[in-house]
Amino acid sequence: MSAPRRRFVLGLAAALAAGLGPSDAFAARDRRPRETLFIGLDTSGSFRRAGYDDALAFLAYYIYGHLNGLGGLSQPRELFVAAIGGRGADEPKAFHPIHDFADKSVAQIESDLRTWFPPTDTLTDFNAFFKKVARIAAERNLVLRPINIMIVTDGVPDVARGRAGSAEAYRRIDLEPLEYLARRVTVRLAYASPPVAERWRTLVRRQRVRMWTVDDEVMKGWRAQLRENVAPAGQDLLWRWVRENVDFRVRRGI
Question: Around 48, how many Cα atoms within 13 Å sit in the side-chain half-sphere?
């Protein structure tokens, strides 16, 4: 047996011994871990006034770019998209899997997002979203890969009692289900105002979870990167902008 083949067989055996399935064992040959990407879209009425339309158009490109690995964007092994909202606390929401977006154009993805996630909810319930992310990751054994959680929202939390957006409301945001979910968990917050983003960084308790925020004014700049009459595969400026502003790799402790 040749040396390269022997290394492959040994690596495959080690992956199987670690409890991975056959498909995962073959994927383990690639040293770059295929991430799991969760996307949460704020469907509350307040976000409708604060950037919902622009955010959905951006998300369509963001999802398409990642699924096709355009411009150096990471290709997720799994993708789930859900609403962050409800008409009451802890209201369950459906998480649309990667299969619902595969082989679709940017326009088709945006159309589906608008159909599935109308901005008609009265509450923004981040905790219910984080709990279900943790449950899906555990049930599907996704804990061996990096987990990226992209939240598109104005970032203002609602509480059953008390004033929305108060310091106490931010302190009630619970990232505990995510803390030891995987070796690397990153929460990305997009479209919040600078004061709201700062409250997430300073008031939301976390230990191992990494956080990255992109202010609403910065997010509006994505359209300036689009080139007219150019297919998504050729939108190099946009994909570079996404890598450097939204998908920035966060060090622990930030």
Answer: 12
- pLDDT beyond 70 at 27: no
Q: How far out from the chain centre does Cα 27 lie?
A: 22
Written in H, E and C, the secondary structure of 108-148 is HHHHHHHHHCCCCECECCHHHHHHHHHHHHHHCCCCCCCEE
Place of tokens 């555990």: 138
Longest dimension (CA), the chain: 69
pLDDT tens-digit profile of 62-93?
999 999 999 999 999 999 999 997 776 667 78
Rounded mean pLDDT of the chain?
Answer: 86
Enter the tokens of residue 141: 């054994």
Q: What is the DSSP string of 32-43?
A: SPPPEEEEEEE-
Q: What is the DSSP letter of 83?
A: E
Q: Which of 113, 116, 12, 122 is nearest to 54 (CA)?
A: 113
Confidence band of 159 (pLDDT split at 50, 70, 90): low
Query: Could you tell me the two tokens for 131?
Result: 């709990």
Q: Is 174 left (phi over 0), alpha (psi -120 to 50) or beta?
A: beta
